[in-house]
Structure formats: C-alpha cells, structure tokens
Amino acid sequence: MEPGKGEITLLLAKWRDGEPSAFDELMPLVYPHLREVAAAYVRRERTPDALQATALVHELYLRLLAQKKAVGEDRRHFYTFAAKVMRMILIDHARENQAQKRGGGCLHVPLSDDLPWVEVGSPELLDLNQALNELNALDAEKGQLVELRYFLGCTAEETALLMGTSKATVDRELKFVKSWLYRRVRLGVLDKALIP
Predict the structure, then answer these.
(1) How far apart are alpha carbons 27 and 65 in whole angstroms?
(2) DSSP class per residue in 147-177
(3) Percent of the chain at pLDDT above 70?
C-alpha cells in the first residue's frame, strides 16, 4: 500500500506536535495511493466535465493543509479522514453538477463495482452521503469500513489491516452494510431526523 507503516504514524505525530515540515514529508509517502484512488474514480466518470484525478488529490491536499495539525493518530485515522474528505469533494462536485445540469443527458457511471446503484455525479451519490452520515451516527466503525473500501479504494485486505481486524470480518460487515445502504438509497428509507 505504501512505505513503512510506522513512518506515516511518526510523521503524523510530528505534524500534530506542530512540526510543519512533517506534513511536507508525509504527502509524498501517501500521494501515490491517494492519486491511484482518485484515478479510479475518474476512470469511472465519463462526462467531459469530470473532476480530474490530479484535481481531486490537489483539493484533498489543500483541505488537509488547512487542518494546520495532524488529522489522526496513525495511518488508519489518516486514511479514514482522507476518505471522508475525498467523499466530501465528490459530493460537492455532484451537487455542483446537479445544480448546473439537473440530470440532462449525462452518462451514468457506478461509483464502485460493489455499489453499482450509486453513480458518480448522480442524486444517488447525495443520498449515499446522507445514508453514510446516518450509518456513522449508528456505528462509526461500519462507516469507516465503507469509506476505506469504497471511497479510498483499499482492498478488503488493506481495509482489514487498517481496521485491525480480519478480512473475513471486513467481508461479512461490508455485505451487511451494502444491503443496508442499498435499502436506504434505492428504497428511499433515509431518516431525515438523524441528519442535522
């Protein structure tokens, strides 16, 4: 996935302690994986005004830089936070596209092969965001699994490693969560009262 596990945690600790150079050292270590994830999203987006992979990672970089201090104690926390930020960037992009087009003639491309009923730039992505907020309120760990696996693009093995659990547990939990999310997004069972 990336170089030394401990190296990222060490740089996060230095960044949290106020060492600005730690952020500069951290980004080259995590950039290749983040760029790979962004490129996967862009490959699935076939519209001409698609958010480019480099632009997605650069927007992530700017939002991380604005944090001033480290976001998380270790690489699991960092990647979970990065996944949330990427999700928010994609949500913002989807909202912008919806406002401009209102769905007129765009190609529909799945966000992930595992979530084929949610398309990049579609209203379902906004519903998925609301459902994920609801899931995080109910069970933050399951929400992290979804963000790591489908938004950050980690494999089941990488997700298990980051979450400190087994691949079998990740597979089992994600199977349940996918059906829960499907029900909420496709069947319109979003609980508006849970979302601020």
Answers:
(1) 10
(2) IIIIIS---HHHHHHHHTS-HHHHHHHHHHH
(3) 73
Q: What angle do CA 134, 93, 91 make, to 5 degrees?
A: 5
Of 142, 155, 141, 121, nearest to 184 (Cα)?
A: 142
Per-domain boundaries in the chain: 5-194
E strands present in 2-131: 110-112, 115-119
E strands, 51-153, are: 110-112, 115-119
Q: Locate 25 and state its tokens.
A: 């050292």
The pair of structure tokens assigned to 177 is 């969560």
In whole angstroms, give the CA distance from residue 124 to residue 185: 7
Residue 89, C-beta contacts closer than 8 angstroms, at least 6 positions apart: 51, 56, 59, 60, 63
**Cα angle at 94 between 92 and 100, to 5 degrees?**
105
On whether the CB atoms of residues 94 and 121 are closer than 8 A, the answer is: yes
The candidate with the shortest Cα–Cα distance to 173, out of 148, 145, 154, is: 145
- Measured from the Cβ of residue 4, the count of other Cβ atoms closer than 10 Å reads 10
Lowest-pLDDT choice from 40-54, 76-90, 141-155, 168-182? 40-54
Rg of the chain in Å (alpha carbons): 17
How many CB atoms neighbour CB 69 within 10 A? 13
Tell me what pLDDT residue 169 has.
Answer: 93
